[in-house]
Amino acid sequence: MKVCNGTDVSWVVPTVQAHAPTVAIGTPSHTWQVVAQGKMPAAHKAMVHAAKAMAATGMAAITDPSLITAAKADLAQRTRETPYVSPLREGVEPPLDMSRI
């Protein structure tokens, strides 16, 4: 099984997403307004809270292996009818030397 990018990872291993109020309601995604609001103290506070939640989740998974087992079982159940299919042909490899100087 070949994984070609970050979004494909969530089809083959359990993942989690954290959402935090870092921008004003109604701000269009992927805009300069999002970037500008990210410099505000409220956005930083929200990011710290999200980071704490992510760290606590990781710590819980490390200290309680049954959570990892349950997450894997949940992923298997969710993807049973729609298994991962790589969009890449067999044998295709990414050009890892593109940024060599």
* Overall 3D form: extended
Q: How many separate helices?
A: 4
The stretches of 5 or more residues where confidence is low (pLDDT under 50) are none
**Element-by-element helix/strand order:** HHHH
Task: List how many beta strands DSSP finds.
Answer: 0
Write the layout of secondary structure elements.
Elements: H1 6-12, H2 32-37, H3 41-63, H4 65-79
Give a verbal description of the structure:
With 101 residues, the protein is mainly alpha-helical. α3 (41-63) crosses α4 (65-79). The protein is extended, with a radius of gyration of 18 Å. The chain has four helices and no strands. The protein starts with 5 loop residues before the first helix and ends in a 22-residue tail after the last helix.
Characteristic key phrases:
101 residues, extended, 50% helix, mainly alpha
Summarize the structure.
With 101 residues, the chain is mainly alpha-helical. The chain is 50% helix and 0% strand.
